[in-house]
Amino acid sequence: MSRLLLVSNRLPVTVKAEKDSVSVVRSSGGLATGLSRPHERSGGLWLGWPGDVSRLTDAQRAQVESQLTGLRCVPLYLSASEVSRFYEGYSNRVLWPLCHYMLDRIPRQDRDWEIYRKVNERFADLVVRHYQPGDTIWVHDYQLMLVPGLLRQRLPGARIGYFHHIPFPSAEIFSTLPRRQELLKGLLGADLIGFHTVSYVRHFSGSLLRQLGLDTDIDRIIWDGREVRVGAFPMGIDVSAFEPLARDSGILEEVATLRRKAEGQRLLLGIDRLDYTKGIPRRLLAVQRLLEREPAWRGRLRFIQVAVPSRTQVDAYAAYREKVDELVGRINGTYGSVTNVPVHYLYRSFNERQLVGLYRAADVMLVTPVRDGMNLVAKEFCAARPDEDGVLVLSEFAGAAAEMDSALIVNAYDVEAMADAIETALEMPEDERRSRMRALREGVKARDVHWWAASFIDRLQGLKTMAEKGLKS
Ligand code: G6P
Fold this sequence. Notes:
Elements: E1 4-10, E2 13-17, E3 22-26, H1 30-42, E4 45-49, H2 58-70, E5 73-75, H3 80-99, H4 113-130, E6 136-140, H5 147-154, E7 159-163, H6 171-174, H7 180-187, E8 192-195, H8 198-212, E9 220-223, E10 226-232, H9 239-246, H10 249-261, E11 266-273, H11 280-293, E12 301-308, H12 315-335, E13 343-347, H13 352-361, E14 364-367, H14 376-383, E15 391-395, E16 408-410, H15 415-427, H16 430-446, H17 449-462, H18 466-469
Helix pairs in contact: 1-17, 3-4, 4-5, 10-13, 11-12, 11-15, 14-16
């Protein structure tokens, strides 16, 4: 295996500052676990932003640097203005809503493009500085869409992959972006471009045709005298890490305690980053609708919604939080009693053990984003259910729906249909619950995150580079 240079906006670590010392802890997120094996085996480097370290002293910074070196991570520090204009600005105020079909959330005037381009150049410079001939470079996600093209200019013979972790929108939507051509050309610097689903691959091809006049074979494009491959690689989760937790006796005791406290009630669960793509308000309205139209469920449902704080400096997220707070208050005000409320809303982060406990306790898991690249929560829920029970209600607008057709698939814009699906899930006979869950678990196990990383890397490393073809050096 050649040395792997992984490039993502965030490094797979969290920097935790204590009084005098500071520690760098590995993250447990999807990308971090999925790429940890190839990162270690290849002896390569991971380049990215370690998060905000502006409050650290010089001595603490030095500690962070040495711990990062130990993990073979190379930091790229973002200034306060880069955080606000590259990360919060162009990445999360423009590209994020665009790829999630939310054009009305994009500011009318885009002022952050230049900074986006400059930060992408800084990433490319850092990669070039660490590149050794024979390395494989793998760039991740929408924050870095120009990096493959910038690298191609400077390292024409390099092997470069890119993976887009969020939806790629239809050509109609993508064409509204003033910088649409620059971004497409940036991606075409790669040898292999990966998406979660075949639909996103089609959308991407549609944009290439419309914007650059490229008539593609769907998975093969000739651009600038080079061949670029495109493919669907659905990301999975680290099933081997979830299985033991889901059987852990300490966690099972907590599950029993939670179930005892909710005696006589059925548990509905939602777990999301607090993001306007996740469909939390419509999900709440569906629960409200069910209580409104079926008085028999009143007092017998407990909906636990975990909302993990995210991108809190972006105004749309603050406004969304207020909307969710208000809805929760309204539903609890209407259907709560002095001893019980229907919605248990928890705005904070949970660790993996706590999450597995919640997954294991739930009767029905509600994953109803209005748009989502993949959604790994749906997969985590199934991996956490070795008891083969629990029903997954899944939005057709999550990439995961393309693979998980044994879930109850719903239109997340249709509140009434979601209320119906929740009721169907609550009343589903045990044998149907089991057969659906068994099928879901098989898929989740067969295509885990290690399978995902290995299939992308194998495909990329199996392609002949320009240097190997002797076309250019
Ligand atoms: C999504 C994106 C990732 C991003 C993550 C968390 O999953 O695809 O690129 O890292 O959200 O968002 P944040 O803005 O905190 O990095």
